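Field reference: sequence -> structure
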Amino acid sequence: MPDSHNDLPLDEASRAALAAEGLRYAVVDTDDADEHDRWLQADHRGFHFDALTTEQLAEYRPALGGTRSIGVWDATTAEPDHPIATVGSWRSTVSLGDGRSVDGWAISAVSVAATHRRRGIARALLEGELRAAHAASLPIAMLTVSEATIYGRWGFGPAAYTADYRIDTRGLRLTAAMPSGRVHRVSAPAVRAIAPELASRAHERIAGEVPARDLLWQRMFALSTRTASHAPKLRAARYDDADGEPRGFVLYSVAEDEADFAAHTVTVEYLCAATDDAYAALWHYVLDQDLVATVVAHLRPVDEALPWLVSNPRAVQTVARREHLWLRVLDVPAALTARRYAAADAVLLRVTDPLGFAAGEWMLTTDSDGAARVTAHAADPDGAAIIDLGVEALGALLLGGTPVDALRVAGRLAEGSPGSADRLAAVLRPARAPWLSTWF
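Structure field:
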């Protein structure tokens, strides 16, 4: 069964709603290998992934055994012991910058078979997760999404964004000085041992990061059965500071241009920097490769400093930008007081929430040192900024990565008094754009 840390009670309202449709809603017994395997295969089928092999299933079972895995079964199907819908969830943190974080409920593996659409199954799954997390006093829920059109209806808002870059390295000169310390070519397995610790240090510097689970690290380093075929192509480098302490690493691969052997393409698969020196040194290493004409990097921050490291910022092209981390506020005081703020002010947030978790009038009062307090408030106080918004917009704003004025222009929030949007923007402004460097 799921780890006791994640073992929240099954939501009775969702169970009853699905029972009315003739469906069974239950937590998977992950100690039962056959039942767990069927759930894992249903999850992969829902996302059009290849079916898991026997070896992969043997690897996934222990790695995901602590997840709260929920399935929905239809006894009238040709294979009644195979789930027709899935969801997986676990407790996690989200970084807030400045070494701070907030606890939350990570939701993943949301799938419904094509044979069972339009029966309220996804609604029951998502609302069941939110009610369970709220009952467990978790301030937020979080997810990364395959489709951006779905989760707003349950109050999730896009809170952190990513970008993909393409860099033309021909004739490119790095203008930033190479830091003291040293970059070492190393094997990927050698870096794997220190990757979670380095990532943890890097995550403290920025909002939006969610700790990667062990299975994801194994995949990333081509040490899982699913990604082992990539191992011969995967390369790694590590940056050590002047004292010999590891401060960052990069994983990358190289593809040959058959028409021009001097025009290889380097793909940066993951670059982790716990210090500014590590960031600069690792990009120096990546861009200063012989026989390479192009570097591509995916799932990077939207405010990447890279254009300022090179002689020709136009060589660093943003080829895609998208939302990545979605947040759903369940406890307004706990969520808002967890982070630091950029200015002292008082803002009355009048929040609507169809599910009721975050609904109310909340006075956010911030101090000059960045601390905040939040109180329920029924009257409009003199001098406070006043903002009317839905819970989806509140989730989008929580980390400061979504422009307040963009939501105002789009009609996603309204000013209760003139200038309130500008005041809220000044309070929320982060030092760096929030960023999540992995999927979950």
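Note: Residues 121-135 form the longest helix (15 residues).
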